[in-house]
Write a structure and sequence with these properties.
With about 500 residues, the chain is of the alpha+beta class. It contains 17 helices and ten strands. It folds into three domains: about 190 residues, Hypothetical Protein Pfu-838710-001, CATH 2.40.320; about 160 residues, CHAD domain; about 150 residues, CHAD domain (Alpha solenoid), CATH 1.40.20.10. Strands 1, 2, 3, 4, 5, 6, 7, 8, 9 and 10 form a ten-stranded antiparallel sheet that branches. The longest helix has about 35 residues.
Length: about 500
């Protein structure tokens, strides 16, 4: 419990002392550095990673009990899970953080004075802890807070009620919920865990007009783009670029699909801006995907051919450095920064509201037929695909599924949460098959082109060619395996239950 004073008459200990004994323990100091991914994946997985002196500790999020402790003589923490030598730490981080980098969230210093509360039988009924907390983050934000917490021992509920009545009588407020430590520390610097997410997280109301909805959506889209820029510039991990690209595509989808007056002038220019983000970053994203395949590719080949891929990844690494420089120039350019600032000011200010006004149809009437038409298009294209259909037909279906997914996620707040979650899960299963099929096709084409460019004069040409040939064969076999899954997965997506749900939710009587 947290005890807050609202003009208290006496100190907390003075309030309790006539009825209870107080045993003061020596002061203790704690200093932790907290780490998580930019999008708080560890916290979402109910874990905390902290550097505690010469130990690196994986802790439970709720009570910070230590789950894994590794001796750590260094003052820095590796970025990625594969850089950890300890098997338990590495596997936990792999499962939770995935390919995202670890970044320092905050440094915390705490001085605590613990007071043991004894009854007249000298039995411990609880403890008071007075904390002086200092927190700073890597951005230079810092803060301080004094905090008193009351911890009650099980079996002394009567004393607990008595404590609370005594404290309330002296104008203390006892808060029953004691949030996790990390949340308390973030409050000190006016932050909260999960203050960034790549999800849209917009609350749209059915009574909104389409114009008002598009303003809310684009405001959020621009926030996500801006939030990821520094991570791209610092090259922390590839997900910063990915999140920015997905946000720009979602923004374009919203503008394209909603027939609104706000899109007649200002968002026509915004569509061009968002499309330019995609175009300027395509090459770097492709290279990020290829670079992420290194371990997968190695595992596809016998060990004696591994060296044949070294040249490939050295070349890709060089190309990526060049592509990264190009993207950095783009996102730090005066024209990009000015345009992003202009759109942020537009959608944060009154201009967007003036454009949006009350014009346009009510959102609930506008969105339903748009989503249902997109579903019918997916249904029609998918039903026409046969075992001998060309890959281009699956590619066309993949693009339509992507547009349907964007619509469901853009407007999910207008419909029952569990139903939308179910439909998105079904759609995602189909997208996974189509996406894997497309990725495997693209990879084979890229590797074939790379193989064709390998020169015979290269001393490593033979083993490189053998490795690439073996890899292409393996990818071809995997693509056929994925292709064989399509029919069953598509049938599951268009079965009667799913079709009836789309009809019920997205058709108007």
């Amino acid at each position: 419990m947290i005890i807050q004073g609202n003009k208290p008459k006496r100190s907390i200990e003075a309030v309790l002392q006539p009825q209870f004994k107080m045993l003061h323990k020596p002061q203790e100091e704690y200093a932790y550095s907290y780490y998580d991914t930019f999008d708080w994946r560890l916290a979402a997985g109910k874990r905390v990673l902290r550097l505690n002196g010469r130990f690196l500790e994986m802790c439970d999020y709720l009570n910070e009990s230590v789950l894994i402790r590794v001796e750590w003589p260094r003052k820095t923490v590796p970025r990625f899970h594969w850089e950890f030598s300890n098997d338990g730490m590495r596997e936990n981080l792999r499962c939770i953080a995935g390919t995202r980098a670890l970044v320092k969230i905050a440094d915390m210093h705490q001085v605590s004075e613990t007071v043991i509360i004894l009854n007249h039988d000298d039995a411990t009924v609880g403890t008071l802890r007075h904390d002086q907390i200092s927190v700073s983050d890597p951005g230079g934000k810092s803060g301080h807070r004094r905090l008193t917490r009351l911890f009650l021992k099980e079996g002394y509920e009567t004393e607990a009620d008595f404590f609370i009545k005594l404290l309330n009588s002296e104008h203390y407020e006892v808060l029953p919920d004691d949030p996790p430590n990390l949340e308390l520390y973030m409050q000190v610097i006016e932050r909260t865990p999960f203050d960034y997410s790549s999800k849209l997280d917009v609350n749209l109301e059915p009574a909104m007009t389409s114009d008002q909805a598009i303003a809310v959506i684009l405001r959020r889209i621009l926030h996500i783009i801006h939030a990821n820029l520094q991570g791209i510039i610092d090259d922390i991990d590839s997900e910063f670029l990915h999140d920015m690209r997905v946000a720009s595509r979602r923004g374009r989808a919203a503008i394209t699909q909603l027939n609104t007056s706000i899109s007649e002038k200002p968002t026509t220019d915004l569509t061009s801006f968002l499309r330019r983000i995609g175009k300027q970053t395509n090459h770097l994203r492709d290279l990020d995907v290829y670079m992420s395949k290194r371990c997968l590719y190695m595992n596809m080949l016998p060990e004696k051919l591994h060296s044949g891929l070294n040249q490939l990844f050295e070349d890709l690494s060089g190309r990526r450095k060049s592509a990264l420089k190009s993207v950095k120039r783009f996102v730090t350019s005066r024209s990009f920064q000015n345009e992003l600032s202009r759109w942020n000011e537009f959608f944060d200010g009154s201009d967007a509201d003036n454009y949006a006004g009350n014009s346009g149809k009510p959102l609930s009437n506008s969105v339903k037929p748009i989503i249902f038409r997109r579903y019918r298009k997916v249904f029609k294209i998918g039903r026409a695909i046969r075992a001998d259909s060309p890959s281009s037909h699956l590619h066309k279906l993949r693009l339509q599924c992507k547009k349907l997914r964007y619509l469901l996620e853009l407007f999910e707040s207008l419909f029952p949460k569990d139903t939308i979650k179910f439909l998105v899960k079904k759609l995602k299963n189909l997208q996974d098959v189509l996406g894997d099929f497309n990725d495997l096709s693209v990879q084979q084409r890229f590797l074939s082109e790379y193989l064709a460019a390998v020169k015979d004069s290269d001393p490593n040409s033979t083993i490189t060619a053998a490795a690439l040939g073996g890899l292409i064969t393996h990818l071809w076999q995997e693509q056929h395996r994925v292709r064989s899954k399509f029919t069953d997965v598509f049938k599951s997506f268009v079965d009667k239950d799913v079709t009836d749900l789309f009809k019920t939710l997205f058709t108007t009587e």
